[in-house]
Amino acid sequence: MSREWTLRGATTEYTVGLPEHGGWLELRAWGPHGVSDGPSPLGYVGRPQYMTPGDVAAVEYAPDGVRPFAGPDLVVRPARALSWSFEDAAQEGDSLRVDFADAGSGLRAALHYRLAADSDVVERWVELTNAGDSPLQLVELGSAGFSVPTPHGARLTYLSGQWAQEFTPATTELRRGRFEIGSTLGVTGHQFSPYLAVRDARDTGPTWGVALAWTGSWRIVAERDAAGLTRIRAGRVAVEGPLALAPGATLVTPVAAGAYSAEGVDGLARVWHAYERGLAGDRLTRTRKVIYNSWEATYFDVTAAGQLALAEVAAEIGVETFVVDDGWFVGRGDDTAGLGDWTPDPAKFPDGFDTFVDRVRKLGLEFGLWVEPEMVNPRSALYEAHPDWVYQVDGRPRTTIRNQYLLDLGRPEVEEFVHSTLDGLLRGYDITYLKWDFNRPRTEPGRMGVPLEDPDLDGAHVAALYRILEALRRDHPHVTVEGCAAGGARVDLAMASRVDVVWPSDNTAPIDRLRIQDGYLRAHAPHLMSSWVTDATGLFDTRPRSLAFRFVLASAGVLGIGADIRRWSAAERTEAARWVARYKQVRDVVTQGEVHRIGGPDEERCAVQYTLDGRVVVLAWNPGPLDGLGTVPARPVRLKLRALDPATRYAAAGALYSGAHLMSAGLPVHWTADHDADLIEVTQTSS
Length: 687
Ligand code: DGJ
Description:
Elements: E1 3-8, E2 12-18, E3 26-32, H1 53-56, E4 74-77, E5 85-92, E6 95-101, E7 107-115, E8 121-130, E9 136-149, E10 154-160, E11 168-174, E12 177-183, E13 192-200, E14 207-212, E15 218-224, E16 229-236, E17 243-245, E18 250-252, E19 256-261, H2 264-280, E20 291-293, H3 295-298, H4 304-317, E21 321-324, H5 353-362, E22 366-371, E23 375-376, H6 381-385, E24 405-406, H7 412-428, E25 433-436, H8 457-475, E26 480-483, H9 493-496, E27 501-502, H10 510-523, E28 530-533, H11 547-554, E29 558-561, H12 570-592, E30 594-599, E31 606-612, E32 615-621, E33 637-639, E34 649-652, E35 655-658, H13 659-664, E36 667-669, E37 677-684
Parallel strand pairs: 20-21, 20-29, 21-22, 22-25, 25-26, 26-27, 28-29
Antiparallel strand pairs: 1-2, 2-3, 4-9, 5-6, 6-7, 7-8, 8-18, 8-19, 9-16, 9-17, 10-11, 10-13, 12-15, 13-14, 14-19, 15-16, 23-24, 30-31, 31-32, 32-37, 33-36, 34-35, 34-37
Helix pairs in contact: 4-5, 7-8, 11-12
Bound molecules: (2R,3S,4R,5S)-2-(hydroxymethyl)piperidine-3,4,5-triol.
Binding site for substrate: 163, 325-326, 402, 435-439, 484, 506
Active site: 437, 506
Keywords: Glycosidase, Hydrolase
């Protein structure tokens, strides 16, 4: 190695080196502080046979000439077998930039790294510039390659699913070859989260994670070679064909983030949570208000009277923000019409929308609204005026999904329309909450009148989305924005830094939701996790659960209520008010605290522990049958808490325990037919 650079985070370090030949950068060590002090665990001995050294080395970012057989990060045309040489490097504070250039094509690549001193996530991205005279095309454009030593095979954990079943954790063992997840939908997708955890198959501790901050089409590929190295490539995928890079142009890839934890997939989750809390910046500590959302109570049957009846009960229960979901605007009697015409329907609000909002506000509630601004129904005034605004391939039919088309947000006039519509709503009405939905992927990869190979539709759409979200945040800083896409199809690190909460799934039924949230928490933080108490019975597991169970479940992130509370009995409303009040007492711990999952939905033990500045809150559920306690001999479920002080005494649910007891024997919970969930505060005592 002629040169080496180390970035140091809170507990992690990441060291890259430049070999004498200067043809690439390679990973030297990635792990706990001090890991770089010794022979590189990524280095190899012996001679590459029947392949090239770049196919075997832990190359950080490889064009196809460097890594011709094992899978490159970058493929450029008309250049073939592109390779480059080192130009320059600059390390400043928590950042590193290393430049490479190819004389033949004129392509220059700046590899960027950032590892903040208080984080264990290394951010990586690449800036590609065409400094030559001829146009270039980017066929593959990864953001980064991450190398992980997996001598006994790679154990991969990922999150997959579909609508109503998002964030289902799965693991697989990769001994050789390739594993791939991704989306070609033009949006993050329900099918896979851009998240992968990798560890050696026999070593349960050290675990590495890769995630991508991108809200369009993407790919994460893991490849394990014969010598035990697993290399993970992450980046955008050019579904619509190669991206043009004109002379003088620069393209910046999305950030691929790499995380390390010595404590397995669970520890890795804590690293991601801390990172996402960092992305929230000073918005993290804003009070996460308890919301009511009308969707499951009224669907499209929105009327001022019906919404006010709901709002009255919501206020009585302690809800702080009332959100009217789909169905409030002209032409929106069902899902066949109306999208695009964002004017309140005078038939539904006969005294005026202003008056309606005012009435909600007078109940002591803040007000929020649902929108799906990137969409249009063919039955709408917007479509009649601008049929050319939707994605389409000239001469081909257009596909409707949920009776709607996707607007081509990459067109400046569409971006302007969406931005000014939302800005207008926020200026026109007393709104503090916006739920931004997205209910269909892109099907037609084209723009009317523009040759198909030209536009980077995905990049243009996503860039416009980010600009609008950033502008709304800048101009309306008091407005909370919820990101939603037919449930959880738009949850990724890029959205985590631009919205305040996300809606993980349309499935709100108790046991189904327990699973979804358990999976979600492996990758994403509770301050982003919107969750409602509803009357839903379940798609995959219909076992009913108590109101307490549903409140404790929705309290695991940002609490909301979505049930038809007009129908709740006085007793149910009283109980609901008690749970809302309890949530308000602990919400800062839940949304800012460190998370330890205890057991899971498939175990007898099923709880999540949140810890913030010595305050501990445990949310626990009985996910399965009872054990007959009281009738036959049985022992209570024991929740083994974590990260307590063994010598300190704690009070929990009316009893005293040492920290050592709570961590080794565990906190006992007795489930009965009337008691299937609990919220338990564990407090330090002086005795
Ligand atoms: C899909 C969302 O995920 C739901 O919460 C709801 O807002 C509907 N769209 C409304 O059409």
